[in-house]
Amino acid sequence: MKNEAEIREQISIIQQELKKKPKSANLIHDLGVGHYLLGEFSESVKYLQKAVDLAPNNVAFLFNLGNAFNENDQHDFAIDTYLRALDQNPNHIPSLNNLADCYEAVGQSDKAHELFHYLTRINGEDALSHFNLGNFFLRQNQHIEAAKCYEEAIKRDETFTDAYHNIAWILHQAKANAEALEYIQKGLNTDPGHEEMLELKKKISGFLD
Predict the structure, then answer these.
(1) Of 27, 31, 33, 180, which cross-links 172 as Cys (Cβ 3.0–4.6 Å)?
(2) Which of 157, 148, 95 lies closest to 128 in space, CA to CA?
(3) Whole-prediction pTM value?
(4) What contacts 91, CB < 8 A, 6 or more positions away?
(5) Each residue of 93-139: pLDDT tens digit?
(6) Where do runs of H (alpha helix) occur along the chain?
(7) Distance, first Cα to last Cα, the chain
(8) Burial class (CB in 10 A: 0-12, 13-18, 19+), 72
(9) Cα–Cα distance for residue pair 176/138, rounded to 1 Å
(10) CA–CA separation, 89 vs 200, rounded Å?
């Protein structure tokens, strides 16, 4: 990933190019992405909105504008923008996923659940879709449903360390610490340096000593 100096240098280059092509939607979009990467979300929104105005049917532009709105805590604008992206491509996975996140952020949990579940149907072989649904259930304190989703994620990707971690955490909450350690060990077999897993292992080992 580029560091701040590299991103600012790239922004400067884009700004010079824009002097020659002031109506280039691609250059304006890239400028917005640059500001997004710097965490300058208001600036990012400004440029990405200009890019979308020039190319209103570009799914990638709409998706990135939605992300900028979301990071700028303008969730309602983000929702509208993701929906516009989905008008162009109804099965655009990133827009569906981030739209679900936004619905949850504004308290529309039913819509969020519906979308997270829908993603496991249309993108069922992707472990991340099941993991994200599991995280939704976990945030709703539905631990059994969450664990089932994490198991589905592991079936599709045996190296999905975060799924092992979350199952172990759920088991620890249920005081099933021996079983939790089994999942921790499986997770550490795939990523020996996983900090959260190591921290949980240390905590659980203290209970078992």
Answers:
(1) 180
(2) 157
(3) 0.89
(4) 122
(5) 999 999 999 999 999 999 999 999 999 999 999 999 999 999 999 99
(6) 4-20, 25-37, 41-54, 59-71, 75-88, 93-105, 109-122, 127-139, 143-156, 161-173, 177-190, 195-208
(7) 42
(8) middle
(9) 17
(10) 41
